[in-house]
């Protein structure tokens, strides 16, 4: 019988993490920190568990957490979201993305997205009967060509998926990008899904341009983020979605039956921590910029060519000078010859371009970054 997602196999993240373990290699592949989140945040979970916060949370999320998010979004981006009706806590950004797509994409709808694209978008569109229109971003700057977007819009276009800072390329959208999109959509019913999980990992003094702070776009948008990236707790799987009340109501219809509610003690702990450390998000860029700069400095004498990275905790490198083979083959070779695991970026494309680029994750302790670079500079 015909399956619903014939193209979907095991994700590259699982494959590469398994290879890393098998070969006892240094894992710079799947994006997660090899260090813990703030101690006060971790301790707060135990406190809430022993205080009896162990039953279902409200369907939309613990009120204190939704209020803390409303306050944060207003302070960082100036956008006002109603904690009661416009903020929903989800099981990581992954659930928020899936719920938003499921809430609005109908059979035959088209969804515009940009390649290389994070791997969870397309299956969510397809399982809901939609099709993706994938526009390519080109190395080395991976900027959106807005004329190509204009040309791709049809009567069937339902949704445009943005991701800034962008995984895997590390590029960011500017205020001008958002204005251009807003103008383009002004007389349409097209919706926007903005994946901003790396919102607090932006470098070189740049400011993250959130759709949540863009007056014209926010009215038609779902804005998704994740505490996993911000607080080094990817394993907790707590994220959220901001959207105007009518869109949030539709999203919650899906969320209600997908997971219903998210872990209560985790939500309470994050709410406490956000209240106690309101400026955390302002400090995170320096923390990760230091890692990016260290990794780049260590790699400077290698034969890898480093591409520009404005945000995220990923660094793209061109490996052509070392070995001129396709990226999946290169990653396998790299594990065997250098004991370092990377992510091939061809898997994020519908039609992979003929590039020689892989992604390293630098959300790692200094010792790991130094050990990895030591192996990589000798290639
Ligand atoms: N979107 C992007 C661009 C990501 O990189 C990730 C995490 N790898 C997610 C969404 C998923 O976030 P979460 O782990 O909170 O589900
Ligand atoms: N977002 C992570 C990455 O890009 C992977 C998350 C996952 O494995 N689903 O590496």
Automatic annotation (TrEMBL):
<dbReference type="InterPro" id="IPR051326">
    <property type="entry name" value="Kynurenine-oxoglutarate_AT"/>
</dbReference>
<protein>
    <submittedName>
        <fullName>Pyridoxal phosphate-dependent aminotransferase</fullName>
    </submittedName>
</protein>
<keyword id="KW-0808">Transferase</keyword>
<dbReference type="InterPro" id="IPR015422">
    <property type="entry name" value="PyrdxlP-dep_Trfase_small"/>
</dbReference>
<keyword id="KW-0032">Aminotransferase</keyword>
<dbReference type="GO" id="GO:0016212">
    <property type="term" value="F:kynurenine-oxoglutarate transaminase activity"/>
</dbReference>
<dbReference type="GO" id="GO:0005737">
    <property type="term" value="C:cytoplasm"/>
</dbReference>
<dbReference type="InterPro" id="IPR004839">
    <property type="entry name" value="Aminotransferase_I/II_large"/>
</dbReference>
<dbReference type="GO" id="GO:0030170">
    <property type="term" value="F:pyridoxal phosphate binding"/>
</dbReference>
<feature type="domain" description="Aminotransferase class I/classII large">
    <location>
        <begin position="26"/>
        <end position="376"/>
    </location>
</feature>
<dbReference type="InterPro" id="IPR015421">
    <property type="entry name" value="PyrdxlP-dep_Trfase_major"/>
</dbReference>
<comment type="similarity">
    <text>Belongs to the class-I pyridoxal-phosphate-dependent aminotransferase family.</text>
</comment>
<dbReference type="Pfam" id="PF00155">
    <property type="entry name" value="Aminotran_1_2"/>
</dbReference>
<dbReference type="InterPro" id="IPR015424">
    <property type="entry name" value="PyrdxlP-dep_Trfase"/>
</dbReference>
<keyword id="KW-0663">Pyridoxal phosphate</keyword>
